[in-house]
Amino acid sequence: MSAQDDTIRLTTAQAIIRWLTNQFIEIDGEEMRLCGGGFGIFGHGNVTCLGEALNTVRDELPLYRGQNEQSMGFAAAGYAKTWVRQRFMFCTASAGPGTANLLTAAGLAHANRLPMLLLCGDTFLTRLPDPVLQQMEHFNDPTFGVNDAFKPVSRYWDRISHPAQVIQSLPAAIATLLDPADCGPAFIGLPQDVQGWTYDYPVKFFEKKVHRIRRQSPDEAEIADAVVALAGAERPMIIAGGGVQYSRAVSELTAFAEAHQIPVVETIAGRANMLAEHPLNIGPIGVTGSDSANAVAEKADVIVAVGTRLQDFTTGSWTAFDKDAQFISINAARHDAGKHMSLPVVGDAKLSLAALGAASGYKAPADWVAFAQDVRKSWDDYVAENVSYGNRPSSYAQAIGVVNALCDTRDRVVAAAGGLPAEVTANWRTLDIGTVDVEFGFSCMGYEIAGAWGARIAQAQMEPDQDVITFCGDGSYMMLNSDIYSSVLSGKKLIVMVLDNGGFAVINKLQNNTGNESFNNLLEDCPTIAEPFGVDFVAHASSMGATAEKVSNPAELGDAFKRAKASDKTYVIVMDVDPYEGWTTEGHAWWEVGTPHISEDENVRTAHVDWEASRSKQRKGV
After folding, report:
1. pLDDT tens, residue by residue, 336-360
2. Which InterPro entries match (predicted)?
C-alpha cells in the first residue's frame, strides 16, 4: 500500500488476477465467483509473470493444466455452456504458436456466442530484443503479429501496452462476456515486458463486484407488430434455439406454447428445451432434423423464432419453409433478430415471450395442432425402429438408443462433429431440460472430449453425482484425445463412447451422395496408405489412465455402459459401427453444398442436377 493507503503497487499480471478473483455473479440469489478458474499451458510469454500471479490464487482461481491449447479453449466453451453463459473460464497460452493454437477455439466461442477470456502472451512492447523466439514478423507493420489474427474471432480485443490500461480493459472485457447480445470471446494480449511492469493501482479497483446479467425489455411497438402477425396465423410454429436456455426462459417458452397451443420445434443448439414426451414438442428441425418438424415447417405460415441465429442446418439452407411464411424473431441480438425479413423483437427471451403472451389472446387451430402431433408420433415410431438392434450392422443410432435407455435423466450428453451430431439430434429423446450439448455452431472435431471435460468441471460444481457422456467418432478421437488424460489427472470422470467406422465416414457419405467415388476419407480409400489398420483405442485410452473396453455389439454395450456408470473414473467404451449401413435416412432437409457444374464423371453430373433440383424452394432474403 502507498502512504495514503488508497493505491497498491502491483505488476500488470498481478493486477489482472487480483481483479478477476474479486468478480462475482448472482445466480438464483446466490453469489459465486464469476470466473471459475482457468486452463493454462505455460511457456515464455506467460509463465514468469502471469504464472507468478496465478500461483498466489490457486485456491480461488484453480488452474487446470491443459495438454493442448485448442482443447483448453474447447473445455472453456463446454464449461460456459453448462453454466448457460453465467460463468466463464479463462485460457492462458504462451506467445507464438501456443496462442495461435487457441484460434479455432475462439472461432467456436464466437460462433456459439460463448463467454471465454483469453489471456495470451505477446512480443515485447519495447521491441529491444526483436525478433524474439516464435515471433511472426510483419515486414511493413511491426505492430502486427499473430495475436492480431484473433480480431475476427473475438467480440472484444485489446493489447495492454501500459499497466494502467487494465483499469479500463478488464471491465470492458467482462461487460462483453456477460452481454446477452454481444457475448463471445474476449482476447487480451499481454506483452512479456508489460506483464511485469508495475503501477500504483487504486485499491478501490479491486473491491468485490457482484455482476448481474442484463435482461433487455422488448420494444412495445415490436411486440404490437408481432401480436398482429400472430393473430392472423392459421399454421403457427415456434423454433426454440439455444438462446432459450441462455435466457433461462424454458418455463416461459413452455407456458407460451401451452397457452397458445403452438407446436414447438428445436434447433440443434436448442435440443433439450422441452422434454421428449411433451405433446407440443414436434422434434428437431432442419438438415439433421425430423420428418415431423420439417413437415410442420413446410406448412407453417407464421414462425416465432426464439433465441436462434437461423443457421443453414436449421433452415435447410432456407428451403425448409414456405416462401411466404412470416418470421417473428425474438433475440437479444439485433443482428439475429432481423434475419430474412423477420419482424424483429429485440429483447430478452424470457421477457419477450411473457410480453407477447400477455398481449395476445391467440390460440392455434386444433386441426393444425393435431396434424403436428400425428407427424410427431410417426417420427417417434421411426426413431424407435432406428435405434433397435438385431440382425443388422451396428450403428450410431443403436449406440445412442442404448445409452438413452440406461443413463440418468440429469446426465449430460455431448457430441460435436462428423455423423454423430446428426444422429444424436435426430435419435436422442430428451429426459430432462438442458442436458444435451450438440456443438454444431462451429462443429469442431475434437470438441467431444475436451468440451466434455469442461462440462464435467462445471457439472461437478452443480450436480456432482451426475455423469457427462460424450459420443466421439474415431476421426475426432484421433484429432484430439488428450483430455482423457486431463480428466483422469483432475479426477473429473467422463464416459467416452468411441464409435469406430474406419475413418471420416460421414464425409465419405456426402462424397458418395454427390456422385463422387470414395476417396481419402475412409482409411481403406486413401491411396497414400500402404496398409490400413485400426487403432487400438482401448490400449490407447488405458495408457492415459482411463478404464477402457471394447464391445462387439449394442447388446454388449448396455452391460459395458452400466459398468461405466458404476466406475469412479473416466471410462472409455469402443464399438465398431458400419460406415455405410445404419445411418438415419429420414428427416433430412436440403442442404446447400457446392457441387461441380461440369465433370467428366456422369455420376457427378447427375448428382449435381439432382442436388440443384431443390434450389427452387430456397427462400430469398437477407
Report:
1. 999 888 999 999 999 999 999 999 9
2. DHS-like_NAD/FAD-binding_dom, Myo_inos_IolD, THDP-binding, Thiamin_PyroP_enz_cen_dom, Thiamin_PyroP_enz_TPP-bd_dom, TPP-bd_CS, TPP_enz, TPP_enzyme_TPP-bd
